[in-house]
Design goal:
Chain lengths: 283, 270
């Protein structure tokens, strides 16, 4: 093939150029710029003034940031446990019974709602004079007090996400080899024991992927919080992504907002790395 | 038996909010009362409510813009990504793997790291609050995945196809458009659907880079319906809006399910 190379020589770079230019210009360059801005004081009007690590020092003294770190942690653990765990439960209960697909319909319906539409739908249910309070005969401010408001939103998220996780697990369960399960059944294993010692080990790789995706999604939680509470009341339901947005575009503190973005990126990278490493060493 | 019982109980809990959503989104806007929200109204006003959302919040312009973004950007994205995959795999670009790594590396940046420079840069370049600006950024975000899937796909295509076409005197450009792009149709479609869904549901870029009703994408507009003028939006109207804006992604996904599954598995074949 080498001898034909000169025939379509230099212009080859023209084929890769659009992709490289777009990615470099709109992804890499902003990334580097944000990293630089995190070391500056910048309000978008005056040119950025270099302040070293001052923004990062402020991160550690900022009480709002402590709150949003706590909330983000709740989101991360919550999304790794609830939608994934319940999804696995529903999948295991329904994958090999007659009409199993029908039992799964209620869990699939909420997945049709997307993004802001989801929050739109839950707002009148959770609001103070909302449906949930009246139906349950209670007077709870679901979206008011922290950290209860984060848990309420987590419940909404679980309601929406369960279906897709169930679907992934059902596909996984249906594609695991039948022989080990049959053999274990013949040996008298059933129910929990069958699941724990036969099915679960076979499902581990898939579960690792689903949990990993939930980990990253949980760290970046933004949409649902933004639409349901905007991080409030006050700042008590903010996640790191919401704090970043508010510091930057509400408080016009671009430097500090960038520092929060950098922190979020470092935490996401580190968490993904540690998680992947653990998965690799565990298998 | 216990299994079915658990499934039914859990299923009923899950159906509750779905039921409330459907009943109240179909209720005439004026007759909403949280106390009797679980009783169907007997009327079917879903479309009236949605029409009201279209007018009141000017969702129609946002819908049109979002439709534009979620079709044009993925189209550009898959073609640009396919071109990169083609030149790297088929034309054997020197250092091709590094070029690929550079492009694919674009997936690792969280959107929070992009917002400030995009906002400032767009303001300076006159791209802030413009459709072109949003199309550009959405396209850039789509390119890495497209390049990834298409590079994999083209690795599995016999090189003799290319050689034969060269023998017949076709230019590399022509071979791409006439042969390589068409044979990767299913893979392209799978990527297109994923990216369509991503853009349709995007909130944060719309929030950061647009302002006026003509440019603002629909999820951002919906969020505004809640956060800016929530007091003024009747609940049934809001519910109908949330329901209807979610439909396009569902319809697209259901309509292309088979193709989607096939395209992704093709994409992963080495």
């Amino acid at each position: 093939m080498r001898n034909t190379a000169p025939m379509f020589g230099r212009f080859r770079y023209g084929y890769v150029a659009p992709a490289v230019l777009l990615v470099a210009g709109l992804l890499y360059a902003p990334f580097v710029w944000t990293a630089y801005l995190s070391l500056t004081r910048y309000d978008g009007l005056e040119p950025p003034a270099f302040v070293g690590l001052a923004n990062f020092a402020k991160l550690f003294q900022d009480e709002a940031l402590l709150t949003s770190t706590r909330n983000t942690l709740i989101w991360v653990i919550g999304t790794m446990v609830l939608p994934v765990g319940l999804g696995l439960l529903v999948a295991v209960l329904s994958y090999d019974i007659k009409g199993g697909a029908w039992y799964r319909v209620p869990f699939m319906l909420p997945y049709a709602l997307s993004g802001a539409g989801l929050a739109m739908v839950w707002s009148p249910i959770l609001s103070h004079d909302g449906i949930a309070n009246l139906l349950l005969g209670v007077d709870t401010a679901f979206l008011q007090d922290a950290p209860a408001n984060t848990f309420a939103m987590l419940a909404v998220w679980t309601w929406q996400q369960l279906g897709v996780n169930t679907l992934l697990f059902v596909v996984g369960l249906q594609s695991i080899p039948k022989e080990p399960i049959e053999a274990a059944r013949l040996d008298g294993a059933a129910g929990w024991r069958l699941f724990r010692h036969v099915i679960w080990p076979l499902m581990r790789p898939l579960t690792a992927v689903v949990v990993g995706l939930a980990l990253v999604a949980g760290l970046k939680t933004f949409d649902i919080v933004w639409v349901l509470t905007q991080g409030g009341p006050g700042r008590n339901s903010e996640t790191l992504a919401v704090t970043m947005y508010k510091e930057t575009f509400v408080a016009s503190d671009y430097g500090y907002g960038s520092a929060v973005a950098v922190m979020l990126t470092v935490v996401t990278g580190l968490a993904s790395y540690l998680y992947l490493k653990r998965q690799v060493t565990a298998t | 038996m216990i299994r079915r019982a658990v499934l039914v109980v859990l299923g009923l809990v899950w159906l509750g909010p779905t039921y409330l959503l459907l009943v109240n989104a179909s209720r005439p806007a004026s007759s909403y009362d949280p106390g009797s929200a679980w009783i169907p109204s007997g009327d079917f006003a879903l479309f009236d409510n949605f029409a009201q959302a279209l007018e009141g919040a000017d969702l129609s312009q946002s819908l049109a813009s979002t439709a534009l973004y979620s079709v044009v950007s993925p189209l550009l994205g898959v073609v640009i990504g396919a071109l990169a995959g083609y030149v790297i795999v088929v034309l054997r670009l020197r250092g091709g793997f590094w070029w690929f790594l550079l492009i694919f590396g674009g997936t690792v940046f969280p959107s929070q790291m992009l917002l400030v420079p995009l906002f400032v840069g767009y303001s300076d370049a006159g791209l802030y609050d413009s459709r072109l600006g949003l199309i550009l950024v959405y396209t850039a975000i789509n390119v890495p995945l497209a390049a990834f899937v298409l590079r994999n796909f083209y690795s599995g295509v016999a090189f003799s196809i290319f050689e034969a076409a060269r023998m017949d005197g076709a230019s590399t450009w022509r071979i791409f458009w006439r042969i390589y792009l068409p044979i990767s149709f299913t893979a392209l479609t799978a990527v297109f659907i994923l990216e369509f869904t991503f853009i349709w549901n995007d909130l944060i870029f719309g929030l950061t880079l647009s302002q006026t009703e003509e440019v603002r994408p629909v999820m951002t507009a919906i969020a505004g319906l809640m956060t800016d003028v929530y007091a003024g939006t009747p609940v049934p109207v809001g519910l109908a809006a949330g329901l209807v804006v979610s439909l396009p992604t569902v319809v697209l996904f259901l309509a292309t399910q088979r193709l989607f599954a096939r395209g992704l598995s093709l994409g992963s074949v080495q």
